[in-house]
Amino acid sequence: VLWAASCDRFLMEVCVDSVESAINAERGGAGRIELCSSLLEGGITPSIGLLQVVKENVQIPVYVMIRPRGGDFLYTDREVEVMRRDVELMKIHRADGLVLGALTEDGRVDAELCMELLAVCRPLPVTFHRAFDMVHDPSVALETLVSLGFERILTSGCDSSALEGLPLIKRLVEQAKGRIIIMPGGGITERNLQRILEGSGAQEFHCSARSGKDSAMKFRNSSVNMGASLSAPEYSLKVADVAKVRTLNAIAKNTL
């Protein structure tokens, strides 16, 4: 029997970049998956192949990241064209929702571009991702996102983690008054989840719940690295951990 979507009161979204992580998230009781590639870069648009295989293996909703590259959220016309195509393709391949965001050079929500992308996304629900944490004025940005029709905002409270950003997250939940869902995310672990849920009043939360997993490679060439010097260790994988997801879910259940 599949777990009921998270628990009655709180919904846990797990960000994943592999089929194994998606399956583990569902097994552990997650209510939704945010699917991306390269969590090391904060998540970028996943491949269609990944979406197809994930959809074949899990039943909970899969929201797909639409982010053409790492770095900032100021996009060129060509990048926007890529985002539009990606939205169209993800819809064809049964995405349940989409996750995107775009800013102007002065740190405001790019309302014009978001409106254009939301039109392509319809009728799917859309989350505005942590580009929100880079805005100049979060309170103004929230009103813009409400008027544009986003379903939720993923945010660390414009700080290095959701715990650090907790005071702002609480203010955003109060300001939103149920018009848009505020979903804390960023460094959420078993150690701080209860504090974040109780301190913010949020009903949903976002985490990766990952642990390191050693590569199965026996032959290893230690003198070669596939990415830049800042990339992940070549022979170590990070995968959503069923036990961690379960623990987070249990903490949410026991939170008042």
Automatic annotation (TrEMBL):
<comment type="subunit">
    <text>Homotetramer.</text>
</comment>
<dbReference type="GO" id="GO:0005737">
    <property type="term" value="C:cytoplasm"/>
</dbReference>
<dbReference type="GO" id="GO:0005507">
    <property type="term" value="F:copper ion binding"/>
</dbReference>
<dbReference type="Pfam" id="PF03932">
    <property type="entry name" value="CutC"/>
</dbReference>
<comment type="function">
    <text>May play a role in copper homeostasis. Can bind one Cu(1+) per subunit.</text>
</comment>
<dbReference type="InterPro" id="IPR005627">
    <property type="entry name" value="CutC-like"/>
</dbReference>
<keyword id="KW-0963">Cytoplasm</keyword>
<dbReference type="GO" id="GO:0005634">
    <property type="term" value="C:nucleus"/>
</dbReference>
<keyword id="KW-0186">Copper</keyword>
<protein>
    <recommendedName>
        <fullName>Copper homeostasis protein cutC homolog</fullName>
    </recommendedName>
</protein>
<dbReference type="InterPro" id="IPR036822">
    <property type="entry name" value="CutC-like_dom_sf"/>
</dbReference>
<keyword id="KW-0539">Nucleus</keyword>
<keyword id="KW-0479">Metal-binding</keyword>
<comment type="similarity">
    <text>Belongs to the CutC family.</text>
</comment>
